[in-house]
Write a structure and sequence with these properties.
- By secondary structure, the protein is α/β, with parallel strands linked by helices.
- It has 16 helices and eight strands.
- The chain has helices spanning 2-18, 62-69, 86-97, 114-127, 138-152, 231-250, 275-297, 302-322, 326-336, 355-360, 363-370, 375-384, 397-411, 428-435, 439-442, 451-460; strands at 51-54, 74-77, 102-105, 131-136, 179-183, 195-200, 205-210, 218-221.
- The chain has a six-stranded parallel beta sheet with strand order 1-8-5-4-2-3, sandwiched between helices. A two-stranded antiparallel ribbon has the order 6-7.
- α3 (86-97) links the parallel β2 (74-77) and β3.
- The protein is globular and about 60 Å long.
- Mean pLDDT is 91; it is low at 15-38.
Length: 465
């Protein structure tokens, strides 16, 4: 018996010596010495996205998804216009087929406000739902994220989770209910991200909530839903994809962002450019360059519209983890201070600057400004968008990208700058004031900016062509 035990022990020692040494398969563990953080900048990044399902007609599966989740009381959220259109009908048919009990909320406001968020939150709290379905563009999906969050944290004050410095920016530690997002526009990428944006009416500025905890459980990307989008909605949604890709690729690198969080729960959703986000941003940019003009000009071009729907999600994966910077930071007061502008193809009863338009109008000026840092990235983006850079000088990268963007926008009949949507030089101080609280994104600009810089960027964006 002793000899048997000795043979067994010898065999175990031999197995240990021969064991796989790679960290994925080996069972032995040795702690790697902790890497010291240099200064107070971060040293890590993480990727968080929703599960994504793509396919023509895949919306029909949503009833089965809710069954699989064991959902007994579902909140279906959309807006008045969409409630009469095929995307919502497709969801309703699936819910009926699989016997899903639901209540519909169709009072979502296009470009939501703090009050429209609060109205949806009140509905969600009263409904005591155990799952949510959002059918619409970014406005609907963001509103549903907020409703889910505050219904799951009913004692929280509204400003608790709103981004600092406007709100308290507390980390989300409560468990949320499952949320299935069905995007009907090809722009925001909200089905992939933990961000919800709204107009804070008291300050006349856009802000939002940013936490990985609020991202949808599942994003259902059904390209059939984009076929009914009018031309200008396709264009403005696509401009959002364009800027998501450009801004996340040119953002401050993650390891230059400060402060380094003392606890990973405090690492922001927008972390700075990183090797994984870069891949998605560039891929989205290439799709935009190839398909956006086609998708705008021909509503029957199913290939173009389907690819733009995917590009929206791809860019969402990129910027949802890397972040955006000045185009978005400056866009929030452009939308929030709107006067009388009402865009073509938007069936709304209030003045409105569509988000994608408010973002893209400053893009030539912004990228001419930021290109001093990482000019090679700006030049690469210009080439993807069609610029001939064979004889280009690296120091001219910003001007080349800016000119490429102007030509791109001119070809698509975009309004000729901020002046064309109702702003003048007299509005610049208010626009700058509205940008200053957007530190969550403006600090991700690769080039720091002063108030004077912001004033110059707004002035340069008054007229594009």
């Amino acid at each position: 018996m002793a000899a048997g035990r000795e043979r067994a022990a010898r065999l175990l020692r031999q197995l240990q010596r021969a064991a796989c040494r790679c960290p994925s398969h080996g069972h032995a563990y040795s702690q790697v010495p902790e890497r010291p953080t240099l200064g107070n900048t971060d040293y890590a990044f993480e990727m968080a996205i929703s599960n994504i399902r793509y396919g023509e007609g895949v919306t029909k599966e949503i009833g089965m998804d809710l069954q699989n989740l064991g959902a007994r009381r579902v909140c279906l959220m959309t807006d008045k216009n969409l409630s009469q259109l095929p995307p919502v009908n497709a969801v309703l048919n699936s819910l009926a087929k699989y016997g899903i009990n639901f209540q519909m909320y169709d009072n979502v406001r296009v470009e939501p406000t703090d009050q429209s968020f609060l109205d949806a939150i009140t509905f969600a709290k009263k409904g005591e739902f155990d799952a949510y379905v959002a059918v619409g563009g970014g406005s609907v999906i963001d509103t549903c994220k907020a409703a889910n969050l505050y219904a799951s944290s009913p004692t929280s004050d509204f400003l608790d989770y709103v981004n600092a410095p406007i709100g308290k920016g507390k980390p989300v530690t409560v468990p949320l209910k499952p949320l299935i997002a069905v995007p009907t526009t090809a722009g925001t990428g909200s089905e992939t991200t933990g961000v919800a944006i709204f107009d804070f009416k008291e300050l006349k500025v856009k802000t939002g909530i940013a936490s990985r905890a609020i991202k949808p459980t599942l994003g259902i990307i059904d390209p059939l839903h984009t076929l009914s989008m009018p031309e200008r909605i396709v264009a403005n949604s696509g401009f959002d994809v364009l800027c998501h890709a450009l801004e996340s690729y040119t953002a401050l690198p993650y390891n230059r962002r400060s402060p380094c969080p003392s606890n990973p729960i405090n690492r922001p959703a927008y972390q700075g450019s990183n090797p994984i986000s870069d891949v998605w941003a560039l891929h989205a940019l290439r799709i935009v360059a190839k398909y956006l003009k086609r998708a705008i000009r021909n509503p029957d071009d199913r290939e173009a519209r389907a690819n733009m729907h995917l590009a929206s999600a791809f860019a969402g994966i990129g910027f949802g983890n890397a972040g955006v910077h000045l185009c978005h930071g400056m866009s929030y007061p452009i939308s929030g201070l709107v006067k009388t502008y009402k865009p073509k193809d938007y069936n709304v009863d209030h003045s409105l600057v569509p988000h994608g338009l408010s973002v893209v109008l400053t893009s030539p000026a912004v990228f001419a400004f930021t290109a001093q840092i990482h000019p090679e990235r700006h030049l690469e983006a210009a080439e993807i968008l069609g610029a001939d850079i064979r004889t280009a000088r690296i120091k001219d990268a910003g001007f080349i990208l800016a000119d490429t963007l102007r030509k791109f926008l001119f070809d698509l009949n975009v309004d000729d700058g901020l002046a064309a949507i109702g702003y003048s030089k007299a509005d610049i101080p208010a626009l700058v004031k509205g940008t200053l609280p957007q530190e969550r994104v403006t600090k991700l600009s690769p080039r720091p900016q002063t108030e004077e810089d912001l004033s110059a960027l707004f002035e340069a964006s008054m007229k594009l062509y």
